[in-house]
Design goal:
Serine Threonine Protein Phosphatase 5, Tetratricopeptide repeat, rod-shaped
Length: about 280
């Protein structure tokens, strides 16, 4: 009996030792499974991460390609706009030459108009007879002077007042020779004498150009503004408004210049200056 009492604790310890060893083995098995699962999960995440990295790399390559294409497109657009601007300048120059030629012809016609009047002429009277009668005609009583029919004499060319086209051409010639002050005086005289002439908008435009030639940007700006306000439907109005925008930009008035360019596009959308204004707005800072 005493022996059994002594053996019982020993058996309990042995059984406890066996249970603990079994639990450890189970625990170790679980740890191995967890490690395997963790390794597999890490592998799957690594595969996913590699796929994400590859996708990002492809996206970056696509973005780089798109950026290169966009840069090339912008360069092509700038080149085309520059070429278009040059063509517009050539068209304007050709148009200006045609207008100048037409103006010269009109001035020449005005100058020759007084010369087209024929000089005074005297119509011959009837032939005076000898005083003897004929069977069919009685003899005239007395010789009387023949009546004189006269056309008005052409006035002296020095006293003829130049017409608007002559005055315009003379002033324009002065401007081309570099005499800005004399040209401006002639254009201003034209506007005083012929305010309703069809060359009045041109005269006001060239007044502004005379100031611009002298480097008087503020005065040129004011003169260009008069073209737009007094002759808004004239062919010179979009040119004057665009020139005014350039003058404002030269004075550092960027917001006012931007507003003037917007007006060119809005009010004269079909003009050549509207194309130039759109191009200028892209680079205006």
């Amino acid at each position: 009996m005493n022996r059994l009492r002594l053996l019982a604790p020993a058996a309990f310890v042995a059984v406890g030792a066996c249970a603990t060893r079994s639990d450890i083995q189970v625990l170790q098995s679980d740890i191995r499974v967890m490690r395997i699962e963790s390794t597999q999960a890490d592998s799957a995440r690594r595969v996913q991460l590699d796929a994400v990295i590859a996708a990002l790399g492809g996206t970056q390559d696509s973005l780089r390609s798109m950026h290169a294409q966009l840069f090339k497109f912008q360069g092509d657009v700038r080149g085309e706009l520059y070429a278009l601007g040059q063509q517009l300048i050539q068209v304007q120059e050709l148009t200006g030459q045609s207008q100048r030629r037409l103006q010269e012809l009109r001035a020449s016609m005005e100058q020759r108009a007084p010369e087209s009047v024929a000089p005074a002429t005297q119509l011959p009277g009837p032939t005076q007879g000898t005083g003897a009668a004929t069977p069919n005609r009685p003899a005239p009583a007395a010789a009387t002077p023949a009546p004189v029919t006269s056309l008005p004499q052409a006035p002296n060319s020095g006293s003829v007042t130049p017409g608007p086209n002559q005055l315009f051409q003379l002033s324009l010639d002065q401007l081309r020779r570099g005499s800005a002050v004399a040209a401006r005086a002639g254009f201003q005289d034209l506007l005083r004498q012929y305010p309703s002439s069809d060359v009045a908008p041109e005269a006001q435009f060239y007044i502004a150009q005379s100031y611009e030639t002298e480097g008087k940007i503020a005065s040129a700006d004011s003169a260009y503004a008069l073209v737009v306000s007094k002759y808004p439907q004239s062919a010179r109005a979009p040119s004057a408004l665009y020139k005014r925008a350039l003058a404002l930009q030269a004075q550092g008035k960027v917001q006012a210049a931007r507003a003037a360019l917007d007006l060119v596009i809005r009010n004269y959308s079909r003009s050549d200056e509207a194309v130039l204004a759109r191009d200028r707005l892209r680079t205006l800072k």
